[in-house]
Specification:
Radius of gyration: 24 Å
Number of strands: 0
Strand content: under 5%
Helix content: over 70%
Distance between the termini: 85 Å
Largest sheet: none
Oligomer: single chain
Structural class: mainly alpha
Length: 251
Amino acid sequence: MNEKIKDKKSLGRACARCFLRSYFVGAGFNTRGLQNIGFSYAMQPGLEAIYSDSLELSKARKRYVKHYNSHPFWAPLLIAIFLAVEIQIKDGKFPVLLLNKVKNTTSYTLSAIGDSVFAGSALIFWALATISLLLAGNTVPAMLLGLISFVGLQVFKIYIFWGGLYKGLGFLDQLKRWDLINWGERLKYVNAFVLLIIWTQLWPSGMGIFQWYGGAVILGSLGWLIATGKISREVIAVLFVVASLFLINLI
């Protein structure tokens, strides 16, 4: 009984180390396995606590040095889920042959959600809201927004790590009920509204509406040309520099 309690405490400390290491998942990024080095590094303490047999530990390590890539905000969840899966593998409750397929499917699905919700919506909202607040001279609220966002992210990471550790793959059902994709789409509408506020704050006092929106149309058209590959961004950069020098000399 004491030995079992000791093992649980050891596993708990190892999981805490895994969580801290999740912040370094992207540190060993490479073109072959992408984030696999950082991910296997983060998994290491937990695997050592789960497997006492050196041969089984070696096999478990090899399962996580393969290709891995996902949004960094999901790293704690994925680490926790696969630690829970490894415990099931050790107990003979999960077929090890299915792990690689489950690992790839889960990490890629969460990567798409992370890119849409976090990178494409939440981080954009933070950036736009901060710009708007600073333009209005609200320095303290801008700093508070950044601080609250940072702390909120850490709380989110701790919560999903705990959920993934105790519920394993079952936590993904709860994540599905959060409907993050649709919330990300709603936040993009909010971002568009904040962007309009910024445009209002930046509106040049001596410039007419046709000049302002004419410039916006030109910039949008150039962005479309670059995005569709009809013209390279280097050519656009050169044209921008030449046009700027021409306007400076003209003024």
